[in-house]
């Protein structure tokens, strides 16, 4: 089974925050329809979400459609890009226990299980969750904070992965964070197997080092963040050209981990998060230009039906599906 890759770029603007309003900052962007924002010039994306957009609307626009794809055996990726305090973590996580303010991650996790419980009773599911961060190009398991500087491995199909724990979530520091949901399913009657992964990525803030005034360790952190974001941009640029035989996935650990979610078997959505404030105009324009580098659909999906995996012996007594 093969299908064209689907990639989309969504643009979300947050409202002016309290500090910006107290300074009297001007809100610069003008919105034209549901796909265009004007900031000096028009920028067109698959969808532009104005500052008054609710979390549910953002989820329905950016993420809901990927659930069925992942349960259908495809890989999915959603990642938030933008400067610090542009609304990335609010978009991806939000407030976990507030039904109105929760973000993409808790909503999509709930949606996955809603879909599973409505599917054929002959299907068994095996679901794993991993959560890790990349800080100074080192990988730390956020489900077991004693594990640091983890290695990137490759499976038998040369797909990169990180071996991490599957436990309750710990708190993450400023870094790139990746929340990974792996879903394997088997039809117990036909023995058909499908496997899909969903990468939910909250990227560290992109900003000019000179503007932050960072020194010492903070300067090293800012430089590493910008280096890894530049590596991501270079991968996207190479994929956009379509004719390049070499895509520089190995230039950073993040791009290596996301290799099969950017150029392979995937449905990818990038949410570029922007500030409307005049004081952040340069960073916002940089973010908008980054979003316009994202490639048009060009890849094809791999057929994962032949992939084998151990069947779980632990099944849910109510539905016969593995937990």
Automatic annotation (TrEMBL):
Domain Kinesin motor: 6-297
Localization of this protein: Cytoplasm, Cytoskeleton
TM helices/strands, residue ranges: none
Pfam family of the protein (one): Kinesin
Broad class of where this protein is predominantly found: cytoplasm
GO biological process terms on file: microtubule-based movement
GO CC terms in record: microtubule
InterPro entries: Kinesin-like_fam, Kinesin_motor_CS, Kinesin_motor_dom, Kinesin_motor_dom_sf, P-loop_NTPase
Coiled-coil spans in chain: none
Keyword ATP-binding recorded: yes
A single GO molecular function term of this UniProt record: ATP binding
Binding site for ATP: 82-89
Keywords assigned by UniProt, alphabetized: ATP-binding, Cytoplasm, Cytoskeleton, Microtubule, Motor protein, Nucleotide-binding
Entry's family note: Belongs to the TRAFAC class myosin-kinesin ATPase superfamily. Kinesin family.
Protein name: Kinesin-like protein
Native species: Hippocampus comes
Classification lineage: Eukaryota, Metazoa, Chordata, Craniata, Vertebrata
